[in-house]
From TrEMBL, chain A:
Pfam families: ABC_tran, OB_MalK. One of its GO terms (molecular function) is ATP binding. This is Glycerol-3-phosphate ABC transporter, ATP-binding protein UgpC. GO terms for biological process: carbohydrate transport. Keywords: ATP-binding, Nucleotide-binding, Transport. Residues 4-236 form the ABC transporter domain. NCBIfam families: PRK11650.1 (NF008653). PROSITE patterns: ABC_TRANSPORTER_1, ABC_TRANSPORTER_2. GO terms for cellular component: ATP-binding cassette (ABC) transporter complex, substrate-binding subunit-containing. InterPro entries: AAA+_ATPase, ABC_transporter-like_ATP-bd, ABC_transporter-like_CS, ABC_transpr_MalK-like, ABC_transpr_MalK/UgpC-like, Mo/tungstate-bd_C_term_dom, NA-bd_OB-fold, OB_MalK-like. PANTHER family: MALTODEXTRIN IMPORT ATP-BINDING PROTEIN MSMX (PTHR43875), OSMOPROTECTIVE COMPOUNDS UPTAKE ATP-BINDING PROTEIN GGTA (PTHR43875:SF1). The keyword Cytoplasm does not apply.
Automatic annotation (TrEMBL), chain B:
Residues 1-22 are annotated as: Disordered. This is Alpha-glucoside transport system permease protein AglG. The lineage of its organism: Bacteria, Bacillati, Actinomycetota, Actinomycetes, Micrococcales. One of its GO terms (cellular component) is plasma membrane. It is a multi-pass membrane protein.
């Protein structure tokens, strides 16, 4: 067991001027499950591959425990990696696949067999040990890939989108299995995904990356409740947060006919560069259905209602002028607002719904920098 | 490679209908007819040769082989051509010589080229692309260009191995390798790169990665190229004629020598040629499964 430390680690691909990973500083505690998440091309896989030793580190250091592994060969880093396509050896049986690393390390046959069988028991693969990978289902292959990592008893597990080749139902099952397995084994794990739901459900902590820059690190709750900037606010949570840019007048943000009062601290955080504007964010689930005339209530034109049984989501536009409507965006796209409503009382299509942000559940970001403002 | 792919064959067999192919597409009569005609055209010369081997010298010289079908009784059927070849011409020894030439001349280039292909596909070194282009480029250089310098180099003024088997092995290795390296490298680049990365993390050296993973996964391509190279070496006349002593000579050279300058012995040539074909045909029939798979495997990932 060990900690993992990225110390200003930077990776610039040859022929590119912009770093793919730019001065990443990140500490993963012993036994922690850290999820690296971000849109494609954000550098999350590159960060993981730097830790694995499959990518060079152009500047900075990477430490596993107290040991600087920046220039150490992958095999000497005491890590195990699960690949997106599993990278199983097609001509070897499941047992040989799982025992490959031990065989290379020159371990005696009886020990290999014993460790492979232990791992197979944990993963429920015992009856498949003599099969070839092609005779396994996608989920079983995924478990073999996990088994190959477990057998090695490494200090750190690295997982590169291991669930993306599974179908939706199996992905949800395997997600919980991997998370509980990791907690049971207590091995430090760095997990890469582009799926924020996976990140929220599996990680002890989440690190969000964008364009090679670390945006925020924190527990799932912190990421959800106090996103550090607009990008994290829009990325974490499903459906995504409604975020819009509004004028500030008399200490309140103007949402068409409604004024959303802003606190003294928020106003103080605004600078001249913001040009009298503020980014206001509110999650679909932070809106209460209200009535016309209530303070802070604003109208939404209902375009579509999506009923999921446990929830219902209203997709609509902010009423009260084009400028206001165009300036907001949500998970459904530009000029769209999403509101979670009681699934037993859904509004009609085309109707006008008055909603109000629940107190304390609005997020403020500076218009110029996109950084979070105190509320 | 998903679960759907593995379960597909079972469904196919149960759904198979007449008029449809295994993959569910409609059977095309045009392609069946064209393929049959082409196959017949290609088999015809061999068939003609075989029928001629069984006819007497006079019959061969006077009328064409197709008279076998119109006038089957007057063809002078005989096995003398075969007995003539086997008794007079030392065919057994030359068949053995040809094997001694072909087997190492098949294995050696593949072995070297497979190492090279691994390096070109999975390792990083300076001028990798340039070197590869050069190797592909030399594929177009024919062996005639090098005949004179090679005779000098391998002959008594140089290394002094001309006339021995090892000289021919070296030449076939050298001239067969560019194409082999090219095919194998292209095949290996279709293998999932993460397998090699996984092996790297598992602690395998390049040598182990090659022998334990990449070589077994490249068997279809290796077998396909081995078939090609074996047939090429077996049928080679130029190198064998120039670089082998008469006592070491191969069956193709022997057949060529059966024909006298005045055209005498032409009937024995047919039988000799047919005997020289037997081994290549056997090799092809045994390896054709790999051969077809190896040629298509680059395009269809599976």
């Amino acid at each position: 067991m060990a900690t993992v430390t990225y110390d200003n680690a930077t990776r610039i691909y040859p022929g590119s001027t912009r770093p793919s990973v730019d001065s990443l500083n990140l500490e993963v505690a012993d036994g922690e499950f850290l999820v690296l998440v971000g849109p494609s091309g954000c550098g999350k896989s590159t960060s993981l591959r730097m830790l694995a030793g499959l990518e060079d580190v152009n500047s900075g250091r990477i430490l596993i425990g107290d040991r600087d592994v920046t220039d150490i060969q992958p095999k000497d880093r005491d890590i195990a990696m699960v690949f997106q396509n599993y990278a199983l050896y097609p001509h070897m049986s499941v047992a040989d696949n799982m025992g490959f690393a031990l065989k290379i390390a020159g371990k005696p046959k009886t020990e290999i067999r014993q460790r492979v069988e232990e791992a197979a028991k944990i993963l429920d693969l015992e009856q498949y040990l003599d099969r070839k990978p092609k005779a396994l289902s996608g989920g079983q292959r995924q478990r073999v890939a996990m088994g190959r990592a477990i057998v090695r008893q490494p200090q750190v597990f690295l997982m590169d989108e291991p669930l993306s080749n599974l179908d939706a139902k199996l992905r949800v099952q395997t997600r919980t299995q991997i998370a509980s397995l990791q907690r049971r084994l207590g091995v430090t794990t760095v997990y890469v995904t582009h799926d924020q739901t996976e990140a929220l459900t599996m990680g002890d902590r989440i690190a969000v990356l964008k364009d090679g820059l670390l945006q925020q690190v924190g527990t799932p709750r912190e990421m959800y409740d106090t996103p550090a900037n607009i990008f994290v606010a829009g990325f974490i949570g499903s459906p995504a947060m409604n975020i819009g840019e509004f004028h500030v007048e008399n200490g309140a943000a103007k949402l068409g006919p409604a004024s959303i009062p802003l606190s003294r601290e928020t106003i103080a955080g605004l600078s001249d560069a913001d040009n009298g504007k503020i980014n206001l964010g509110f999650r679909p689930e932070s809106l209460d259905v209200s009535t016309e005339g209530t303070e802070g209530a604003f109208p939404v034109e209902v375009n579509l209602v999506e009923e999921l049984g446990s929830d219902a989501f209203v997709y609509g536009q902010l009423a009260g002028g084009d400028e206001v409507a165009q300036n907001i965006s949500s998970g459904a796209g530009q000029a769209q607002v999403i509101v979670r409503v009681d699934p037993r009382r859904v509004p009609d299509k085309g109707s006008r719904l008055w909603v109000k942000i629940r107190p304390g559940e609005q997020h403020h970001f500076a218009a110029a920098s996109g950084l979070r403002l105190p509320s | 490679m998903s679960a759907a792919v593995t379960s597909a064959p079972a469904e196919r067999t149960s759904n198979r209908q007449p008029g449809f192919m295994k993959d569910g597409r409609r059977r095309s009569w045009t392609s069946i007819i064209v393929a049959t005609v082409l196959a017949a055209l290609w088999v015809l010369p061999s068939l003609a040769l075989f029928l001629s081997t069984l006819r007497s010298r006079d019959a061969q010289a006077s009328v064409g082989w197709w008279n076998v079908f119109t006038d089957p009784l007057n063809q002078g059927w005989t096995l003398d051509n075969y007995t003539g070849v086997l008794q007079g011409q030392d065919m057994g020894a030359s068949l053995l010589n040809t094997l001694v030439v072909s087997v190492p001349a098949t294995i050696l280039p593949i072995m070297f080229a497979a190492f090279g292909a691994y390096a070109f596909a999975f390792m990083n070194f300076p001028a990798k692309e340039t070197l590869f282009v050069i190797i592909v480029g030399v594929m177009v250089v024919p062996i005639q260009v090098a005949l004179s310098p090679m005779l000098n180099l391998l002959g008594p003024n140089g290394v002094g191995i001309s006339g021995q088997f090892v000289a021919v092995w070296l030449l076939h290795t050298g001239f067969g390798m560019p194409l082999c390296l090219y095919t194998l490298r292209n095949y290996m680049s279709t293998l999932p790169f993460s397998v090699v990365e996984s092996a790297k993390i598992d602690g395998a050296s390049h040598y182990q990665t090659f022998w334990l993973l990449v070589a077994p996964m490249s068997i279809p391509a290796i077998a396909a190229f081995a078939t090609l190279q074996f047939l090429w070496v077996w049928n080679d006349l130029l190198i064998a004629k120039l670089f082998l002593l008469p006592s070491n000579t191969t069956v193709v050279v022997r057949v060529q020598q059966m024909l006298g300058t005045q055209g005498q012995g032409a009937e024995i040539v047919t039988a000799g040629a047919f005997i020289s074909m037997i081994v290549p045909i056997l090799v092809f029939v045994l390896l054709q499964r790999f051969f077809v798979r190896g040629l298509t495997s680059g395009s269809v990932k599976g």
